[in-house]
Amino acid sequence: MAKKVLVLLLSLACVLVPLFALPAAAESKPLVYIVPVRGEIETGLYNFLKRSFAEAEENQADAIILEINTNGGFVNAAEKISTLIQNSPIPVYAYVRRSAISAGAFIALSCRALYMAPGSAIGAAEVIDLTGQEVSEKTVSSWEGKMRSVAEQQGKDPEIAAAMVRASINIPDLSKAGELLTLTTAEAEQIGFTDGVFASYEELLPALGLAGAQEIVAQEAWAERLARFVTRPYIAVLLVTIGLAALVIEVLTAGFGVAGVISILAFAFFFGGHIAAGFAGKEVLFLFVIGIVLLLIEAIIPSFGIIGIGGIVAVVASIVLSAATTGQGLRILLSSIILTVLIVVIAYRFLRKSPLWSQIVLQYAETKERGYVGVSDYSHLVGKVGSTLTALRPAGVAEFDGERFDVVSEGAFIKKAEKVKVIKVEGSRIVVRLHEN
């Protein structure tokens, strides 16, 4: 019996001793996601923040800190970001490091608390349109109300937030009538508009009860960075201008060459960036391709302009619908058309004699003088006057001495039933010009 008890005690010892020897489970550190809010505030930034918030929630982060350094951006994007912040199950704090201007101030006030680094500034939240002009009173009043609302949620003085929107509001010892309010870190601390001033995260995290927390800095993917870059209004205008100008040059030259490749790349960046940024879906790309196809059909098979008009409408709609707003899309399109006309005119007038132009447009003609004889010799038509049977865009059909010929204008559009004169013949290519009686 004693032997059995001894064996039992030894067995228990073999099981229990290792358990007592195990080290105590290490306490898990709190997890903090640091998400940078830099550059222009637009839909691309919203998509980046949305992804970062989802990742923080998936990893059960204890807090999200928005590191803000921005001079503002689009109101609609700022409102979407504000909603994202307020609906987050994880507490979101704002840490202004340098600037929270305009829409950046709205985002900072939308967080649970506002902290600032020394030497920073917040304010100047006036609403203006893309041309720099003031907007309607209705829009200003709505924006002021939203600024007041988020300030009240943080326990801040809503009148201070309103003075950032309206220059007519005077805050004694802070702003003057006629000037928008912008607070420095020291001023914000003095009036209690910031919840604390900290020079680094080592100082900030203990104040949030997150001392020693593991920090993860969210990084933008290359596609997100590219999308944010190409969707900037002036970059979008540049891409559309390059795409349209190269497309026109390609249509006016024989074969498929460098201009065609440039046009495809420009439009690929434009539509790809706007789709990636969430401004539009793939349907705009489909609409654009349909428009180009219709324009090519019109150029090959004249249809009195019906198919061509449909193609133009499809191309215009695809560009306008790709922008953040209809107004912005129209401005991009109008600016691009003006710049495209200038580029094409300059290219035609000043570059056609340069070596570069000769690489784009075929300069060598297979003429009779060089020993080339085509299937048909139309040289006898030079100097003859006839009339167009179709519109020339620039190609079409004209009649000379009762015979129909495929002709091409010098480049200008010529209506149907207009008098034209043959100015030169290059092989089977008959070039005409509008004839004035």
Tell me the CATH architecture of the largest domain: Alpha-Beta Complex
Distance from first to last alpha carbon: 135 Å
Fraction of residues in helix: 40-55%
Number of helices: 15
> According to CATH, what is the class of the largest domain?
Alpha Beta
Please identify the structural class as seen in this structure. alpha/beta
Topology, number of strands: 12
Uncertain runs are 1-13, 15-26
Q: Radius of gyration over alpha carbons? A: 34 Å
* Anisotropy-based shape: elongated
How do the SSEs run, as a string of H and E?
Answer: HEHEHEHEEHHEHHEHHHHHHHEEEEE
Number of domains: 3
Taken as a percent bin, the fraction of beta residues is 15-25%
Calculate the mean pLDDT score and round it. Answer: 81
CATH superfamily caption of the largest domain: 2-enoyl-CoA Hydratase, Chain A, domain 1
CATH third-tier fold name of the largest domain:
2-enoyl-CoA Hydratase, Chain A, domain 1
- State the major sheet: 7 strands, mixed
Report on the structure:
This protein is an alpha/beta fold. It has three domains: 31-220, 2-enoyl-CoA Hydratase, Chain A, domain 1, CATH 3.90.226.10; 223-360; 368-434, Beta Barrel (OB fold (Dihydrolipoamide Acetyltransferase, E2P)), CATH 2.40.50. It is 48% helix and 16% strand. The protein has helices spanning 2-21, 43-58, 75-86, 103-110, 137-153, 158-165, 185-190, 201-207, 222-230, 233-252, 258-276, 283-300, 306-322, 326-350, 355-360; strands spanning 31-38, 63-70, 92-101, 113-116, 121-123, 182-184, 214-217, 385-388, 395-400, 403-409, 419-426, 429-434. Strands 1, 2, 3, 4, 5, 6 and 7 form a seven-stranded mixed sheet that branches. Strands 8-9-10-12-11 form a five-stranded mixed beta barrel. Helix 13 crosses helix 14.
